[in-house]
Amino acid sequence: MEKKYCLGIDYGTQSCRALLVEVDTGNEIGDYEQSYPHAVMEEVLPDNITKLPPDWALQHPEDYLYCLSTVTKGVLEKYNVNTEDVIGVGVDFTACTIIPVDKNMEPLCFDEKYKSNPHAYVKLWKHHAAQKYADKINEVAKKRGETFPKLYGGKISSEWLIPKVMQIIDEAPEIYEATDQFIEAGDWVVYKLTGEVKRSSCFAGYKGLWHKRNGYPTKEFLGAIDEKYRNMVEDKISTDIYPLGDKAGEINQVGMNLTGLKQGTAVAVAIIDAHAAVPAAGICEKSKMLMIMGTSTCHMLLNKDEIIVPGIAGLVEDGILPDFIGYEAGQACVGDHFGWFVKNCISEKYINECKEKDINIHTLLTEKASKLRVGESGLIALDWWNGNRSVLVDADLTGLIMGCTLTTKPEEIYRALIEATAFGTKMIIDTFKEYGVEIKELYAAGGIAQKNSLMMQIYSDVTNMDIHICDSNQAVALGSAMFGAVAAGRDKGGYDTIIEAVDKMSKVKEEYYKPIRENNEIYEKLFNEYKLLHDYFGRGGNDVMKRLKDIKLSYK
Ligand SMILES: Nc1ncnc2c1ncn2[C@@H]1O[C@H](COP(=O)(O)OP(=O)(O)O)[C@@H](O)[C@H]1O
Ligand SMILES: O=C(CO)[C@H](O)[C@H](O)COP(=O)(O)O
């Protein structure tokens, strides 16, 4: 019998990639990647005139279609696979990443009329300018004694659907009027492939405040925030939601022209990027926390019980795998602030050294940082360059490096930034444990888990836990491909359930990171200092970060 393949299409923050995988073994044939031509728009629209205020982060949906074509056609051609043998496709996407679309499902920013209106574009997950709307939701929910925020760690994040739509209602009523529906980019790509609008319970559950039994927040609640928000769900957000593992549809003519895939190929209901990595790392039982480490880090955990943990991003029934409560927590800025550092704070001398050694700047700084002893630099940092997602849920917090002197070196700062993210992860783990959610093992996947072994050792030393690594350079895309194989089903050579796919296709490396006792002892001390700073600046001891932000905003 001919080999059967499935395809995972992974839309990250910076780029999109397609991964071709053998269905029976999970062996990765190869991948193809393409960066978004407009990247993340944080300062100006593509017209090069319309400036964006602080905390905005937009993307261009044109890039999603361009990348879809490039990566799918690219991978099929490069590895010369007969499309007859590709049985299923899965799509994952960052979230909450939403597009306002018209009645024909065309993004409003494609319309000449709205090209210079920032609200007509995609609001990327890390668009944090809806914080004041999230604050309103939290305030009114508290006053009314609403119970739904408990499922989201007690606080609704500015990254999510409802605050983002509220921002559009207030700041661009003409865009709100012209919008037929607000749709997650992952669901929109599935529509482009199949012609079917099959919204995913994963996006709706974690990012849309949707609950399997209770639905979205009620009209009464939304109306209590302000009358103008009362009908937003009914008018502009589809309530037709489908579980993970379902088939959304089949590649249609448009999908075939876009991708080169055969009409009739099964397409799975879309999934959030981080969530897709869980089955890829072989996790289908409770108590194993997976960190998906890239631009940001998402912490995923399965459990059988619904235990309320303050400050986590969400817990959703069947949200990751069927028959489990899927818990998510996260750090909004991990690779992103290493990226910021290497882009803005590196001297000519280091750049020349990279050229001489023919390595990139991350590798050079990591090499130098690995020679430092724990605590030797005298630095400590807070990892809030992009706000704090867990456990403080506050996008208005900012980054901090303490202990700098005239002898501080770039690699010391780089290491302090790595350590800050490890401390942030320990805060999350400790909070889960404190509230009775068991974490017995730690797993890691994503770009950084593969690329930076110093960082993984630091995480092991800080958390004092073994860390197992998913044995795929593209864990997220692998997970999506697995959902593609499930959408195809056993009759077509795929699987009936994601658990069967985990059994055959998932991958974990044999070697793992073990904590080094002496390092852990010093990190315990440093973590106590981190906690002091964390609580002082993040829990109301001193709101200087917010006051500085207010002054900054007064200039816009
Ligand atoms: N060797 C490295 N060590 C640590 N961080 C890195 C390294 N190389 C790249 N990065 C950071 O990793 C992030 C990209 O992660 P990746 O997993 O490839 O993408 P994404 O999060 O978009 O899916 C960028 O923010 C970049 O600054
Ligand atoms: O909130 C998310 C998942 O729940 C985002 O999708 C994620 O934080 C962005 O992912 P990446 O760092 O891989 O670009």
Automatic annotation (TrEMBL):
Class of enzymatic activity (EC top level): transferase
A GO-annotated cellular component: cytoplasm
Carbohydrate kinase FGGY N-terminal domain: residues covered: 5-277
Catalysis performed (reactions): D-ribulose + ATP = D-ribulose 5-phosphate + ADP + H(+); L-ribulose + ATP = L-ribulose 5-phosphate + ADP + H(+)
Ranges that cross the membrane: none
Enzyme nomenclature, EC number: 2.7.1.16
GO molecular function: ATP binding; D-ribulokinase activity; ribulokinase activity
Keyword match ATP-binding: yes
Pathway: Carbohydrate degradation; L-arabinose degradation via L-ribulose; D-xylulose 5-phosphate from L-arabinose (bacterial route): step 2/3
Residues in Carbohydrate kinase FGGY C-terminal domain copies: 290-488
Keyword list, A-Z: Arabinose catabolism, ATP-binding, Carbohydrate metabolism, Kinase, Nucleotide-binding, Transferase
UniProt keyword annotation of Cell cycle present: no
Entry's Gene Ontology BP terms: L-arabinose catabolic process to D-xylulose 5-phosphate
Domain of life assignment: Bacteria
Family note: Belongs to the ribulokinase family.
Protein name per UniProt: Ribulokinase
Annotated source species: Vallitalea guaymasensis
